[in-house]
Specification:
The complex is a heterodimer. Chain A is of the alpha+beta class. Chain A folds into 2 domains: about 80 residues, Beta-grasp domain (Ubiquitin-like (UB roll), Roll); about 70 residues, DNA polymerase, domain 1. In chain A, helix 2 runs antiparallel to helix 5 and helix 3 crosses helix 5. In chain A, a hairpin with a 2-residue loop joins strand 1 and strand 2. In chain A, strands 2-1-5-3-4 form a 5-stranded mixed sheet, sandwiched between helices. Chain B is of the alpha+beta class. Chain B has 19 helices and 28 strands. In chain B, the strands form 7 sheets. In chain B, strands 3-5-1-12-9-10-11 form a 7-stranded mixed sheet, sandwiched between helices. A 5-stranded mixed sheet of chain B has the order 7-15-14-13-8, with helices on both faces. In chain B, strands 18-26-27-28 form a 4-stranded mixed sheet, sandwiched between helices. Chain B is globular and about 85 Å long. Chain B starts with 14 loop residues before the first helix and ends with a helix. The chains are: A alpha+beta, B alpha+beta. The interface between A and B is large, with 55 and 56 residues.
């Protein structure tokens, strides 16, 4: 067992885990944050995307020990109480989610994407979400949501 | 219309929890004292099990127990639909054990469950189990399975499940003899893996103090699981078995069925007296979720000299996989062959279906279930017939449409369509797709070296499953009604308990709109409860685009009862006759007076009565209704696809996808459009990207997202969708269902567009999925491996 400590959503957390523990397992099973999902075992689907030190990461592809000492943000840390982050609000307004399973990863990827480039074309949004699979929406409303979320994030600055 | 009522694009009530990571999916649930189960699966497609050595695994760290088929002697997993052979004899229905009984029949078949303190320990211990497999030849290929000497089940000679037919073969053959023109095609409907993003999971729990079992599971229909597992597999009576399907991350049909793992963890939880959680890894999902489609058909369309369709005959082989999954047997028959009239007046139709066992994962309903297969073969035939007879794609369809004034229309294959206007839908689709401008776009594409094609599909489907009397006569072993319970609370808020289940469809919003609209109360005052057999009395669940057309109608019926009782209460308080009470905008009024009572006051009165006449009026305000539809509903539409193909690479780009669908009355346009988008993506996925492939030994070659091509954001265009409306004539809402239309209508539109783009290059057909490799090979005159099959 190894003790792994990090800051998750602004809160210091710590747990003793086996060295092989994935970051997503650490978050879901040790810290109890089940908003980050596991949809595949080959790092394809993106349901587990979170931010580590401000960058989007597939948390199934990183060991918990690699994130020791890092600042981690999960979907649970995005909203301010009942006030949704502009990207979350845009997904709601534009029906960018159906079953909700891919949504946490999709939203975290989208935030990272538009933070890096606030002026994405629709084609760039589609390319940028290539690592997040959604089976419900056909992506049409996700693209619309990301565009609207991007505009709202710009307006909020 | 109030702004949260019928017709409003109300933003979804469920979204806040999903967007903030507060959804509760099965794998998010952890029970006190929980253990973890790992299912050991067969690595081979077909083998005798000569022995299983558990000694080393049992001694591994953390192991609580290991069970095999020898331990788990329970009932067979039942099939929900009996289909008779054409001679009237029943289908072949071999046993379907939860854990293998001496033989494994597909890669992924369940051999043992290892229960340990952690998932990692369970998985590590499973590696130590030594199974002595005596490998047998595998029956992996659908097209040749009937001719193989190897039997998947000794009980099923020739690997035949049933040999079924509809229509008069001799009569149809006679029509073909005299036909002016016959179009013939060999059509493959490719095997798909549903791939809901949430992998299946289950937690079994047993309370020795009460003798009660609880199963948390990723299901579209918890009551059906309770019935099938409780009554047939484990013999647990309903009052001792609770099934909870909490938030479910997509289903698309694949979470209808009762799966072995549900029975295994429930049964084993009683043995170890601790909760057991099992969750599938994605690679397990590929090997254990029921697959979809997988038909091979010889299809022929007969036309007269005027281009009218005069006969259709089809011979289909449908893959059942290794065992009969819950709805598997009805998919190629009653959900496929009965749709072969399509939107056309074809007067004589014959279809023969041979259902076939193979050493592959069971095959069952996947979004559309039978209807996409029917639509695909019909619309490919119609497309080809137009080319062979020199008609345009629009003309051949218009000439053969069931006319608007012919409804109700009795098809020659059992169904009676209640309403539709296929010409109007086609007109609107052609307009939205700008078909008139296509030649200019094609020329422009050609100037860039691209081949541009346009493809049509006009379809009808039967959903709102199902009128119990009709499906009962066709072999369904249960009626397919739905229930609703409306509980009005003392201060006028409402909880609706529905037997439908939402796993992305937005019922918590759409159903609440029905209540808000009907009772005139704010939508915030309405909650929809579903997915727990301890809360909802009974229900048949969600599949076949039935939730609104059947479940929603049950809610309307219960609302009617609530209003009727409320009128009695208002009449009592207002000292009037209940026949004189009018209800509008949330107020009960004595007709012709200004004496009124708000809905909330009626609710409160119901719970704090002082002087109700006891023989006429009971306290409380809660009503239950069951709704059994008179008929299926018949959504229909026209999908038009435009593709551009790069002849150098074979890459097909969908540059425009237009869907014009008649789904009856629309309750929430935003949600309906979202459902259509999702269906279109799955249809385009089937046409261009997705295909489950087995090798000759029965190994699944496409067992992960590295090999099975899922549509991603950059594979798809923005969609152009619209609706036309003819109302369903046999339900009060006039609704038809929208969940499956996208996946039913779109695949032939895409393939017809690809063929259109390639036609002048000499290509006449291309199999799904039309991958770059397949297209490039077709263009270059070489046969691809896929097309050769």
């Amino acid at each position: 067992m190894t003790n792994v400590s990090m800051t998750v959503n602004g809160r210091p957390v710590s747990a003793d885990v086996e060295p092989r523990t994935l970051l997503v397992e650490y978050l879901r099973e040790n810290i109890g944050l089940t908003g980050t999902h596991v949809g595949c075992d080959t790092s394809q689907c993106g349901a587990c995307v979170i931010h580590v030190d401000g960058k989007s990461v597939k948390s199934c592809t990183m060991l918990a020990v690699q994130a020791a000492g890092c600042e981690v943000t999960t979907i649970e840390g995005l909203a301010n109480g009942d006030d949704l982050h502009p990207m979350q609000a845009a997904f709601r307004e534009n029906h960018g989610l159906q079953c909700g399973f891919c949504t946490p990863g999709m939203v975290m990827s989208a935030v990272d994407l538009v933070t890096k480039n606030p002026d994405l074309t629709d084609t760039e949004i589609r390319d940028g979400l290539e690592g997040n699979i959604c089976r419900c929406t056909g992506y049409h409303n996700i693209v619309k949501s990301v565009r609207a979320g991007s505009n709202a994030m710009k307006a909020a600055e | 219309m109030n702004d949260t009522g019928i017709g409003a694009s109300v933003r979804r009530k469920e979204d806040f929890r999903f967007l903030t990571g507060q959804g509760t999916y099965t794998d998010d649930i952890n029970r006190p004292g929980q253990t973890y189960g790992y299912i050991l699966r067969s690595p081979v497609a077909h083998a005798k099990i000569n022995g299983i050595d558990l000694a080393e695994a049992k001694a591994a760290p953390g192991v609580v127990a290991i069970f095999t088929g020898d331990d788990m002697q329970v009932g067979s997993i039942p099939c929900g639909w009996g289909v008779n052979n054409k001679d009237g004899s029943p289908m072949n229905e071999p046993p379907h054990p939860a854990l293998a009984q001496g033989k494994v029949r597909h890669v992924g078949d369940q051999v043992a469950i290892v229960i340990a303190e952690s998932y990692a320990e369970a998985r590590a211990a499973a590696e130590l189990i030594d199974v002595d497999y005596e490998e047998l030849p595998a029956v992996a290929d659908l097209a040749t399975a009937l001719d193989q000497s190897t039997l998947v089940h000794d009980e099923a000679p020739g690997n035949l499940c049933y040999d079924w037919e509809i229509g008069e073969e001799a009569q149809v053959n006679a029509i073909f003899e005299s036909a002016h023109h016959v179009t013939s095609m060999d059509i493959v409907n490719n095997r798909l893996v549903p791939n809901a993003m949430e992998p299946r999971a289950a937690i079994g729990e047993y309370d020795s103090a009460t003798g009660e079992y609880t199963l948390y599971t990723t299901s579209q229909n918890p009551h059906v699981i309770r019935l099938l597992m409780g009554a047939f597999v484990l013999q647990i009576p309903e009052h001792k078995l609770r099934v909870v399907a909490p938030d479910v991350g997509g289903g698309f049909g694949s979470k209808i069925f009762h799966y072995a793992e549900e029975a295994i963890v429930t049964w084993a939880a009683q043995k170890v007296r601790r909760p057991i959680k099992w969750r599938a890894e994605r690679s397990e999902s590929f090997l254990s979720d029921a697959h979809g489609r997988d038909h091979v058909t010889k299809a022929e369309l007969a036309l007269d000299q005027d281009g009218k369709f005069i006969g259709l005959r089809c011979y289909t082989k449908a893959n059942m996989g290794a065992y009969l999954s819950t709805f598997s047997t009805c998919v190629p028959t009653y959900l496929h062959a009965t749709l072969l009239a399509g939107v056309y007046t074809t007067p004589a139709i014959y279809c023969n279906v041979k259902a076939v066992f193979t050493n592959t994962v069971p095959v069952d309903a996947y979004r559309g279930a039978g209807r996409p297969e029917a639509t695909y073969l019909l619309e490919r035939l119609v497309d080809r017939a137009a080319r062979e007879t020199g008609m345009s794609q629009s003309e051949i369809r218009r000439k053969n449409f069931i006319p608007e004034d012919a409804f109700p229309y009795q098809t020659p294959v059992a169904l009676q369509y209640d309403s539709g206007n296929y010409t109007a839908t086609l007109d609107r689709a052609e307009e939205l797709a700008d078909v008139a401008g296509f030649q200019a776009r094609r020329s422009e594409a050609a100037s860039r070296g691209k081949l541009r094609g346009l493809g049509y599909s006009t379809y009808v489907e039967a959903c709102g499953i199902a009128p119990s009397a009709v499906v009962g006569s066709l072999g369904a072993r249960a009626g397919l009604f739905e229930s609703a319970n409306i509980r009005v609370h003392p201060t006028g808020s409402v909880t609706v308990y529905t037997g439908s289940h939402s796993h992305g469809q937005g019922h918590e919003t759409t159903f609440a709109q029905l209540v808000s609209d009907s009772l005139g109360i704010p939508i915030e005052n309405v909650d929809i409860s579903h997915g727990d057999t301890n809360k909802v009395a009974f229900g048949m669940g969600t599949y076949g685009s039935r939730s609104l057309a059947v479940g929603g109608e049950a809610i309307m019926k219960a609302l009617d009862k609530v209003i009727t009782k409320s009128k009695k209460i208002a009449a009592h308080v207002l000292e009037a006759d209940s026949a004189d009470i009018e209800f509008k905008d949330g107020k009960f009024t004595v007709a012709g007076t200004d004496r009124e009572m708000a809905f909330g006051d009626v609710a409160l009165t119901a719970y704090v009565p002082h002087n109700f006449p006891h023989d006429e009026l009971e306290p409380g305000l809660e009503e239950q209704a069951f709704y059994d539809p008179m008929n299926f509903t018949y959504p229909a539409g026209c999908h038009i696809c435009e593709v551009e193909i790069d002849p150098d690479t074979g890459v097909v780009e969908v540059v425009a996808m237009t869907a014009m669908d008649d789904v009856g009355r629309v309750i929430n346009p935003m949600i309906v459009e979202g459902q259509i988008h999702g269906g279109l993506a799955q249809g385009i996925g089937q046409a261009l990207m997705e295909g489950a492939r087995y090798d000759d030994d029965g190994q699944l070659l496409t067992g992960s997202y590295m090999d099975y091509c899922m549509p991603r954001a950059d594979d798809l265009p923005d969609f152009k969708v619209g609706t036309t409306t003819t109302l369903c004539t046999h339900n009060s809402l006039g609704v038809k269902g929208c969940g499956e239309v996208g996946a039913i209508g779109s695949p032939p539109a895409v393939i017809n567009a690809v063929v259109d783009a390639l036609w002048d290059q000499g290509v006449r057909d291309i199999a799904m999925p039309a991958t770059p490799n397949a297209v490039w090979n077709a263009l270059n005159g070489a046969k691809t491996a896929m097309a050769a099959e």
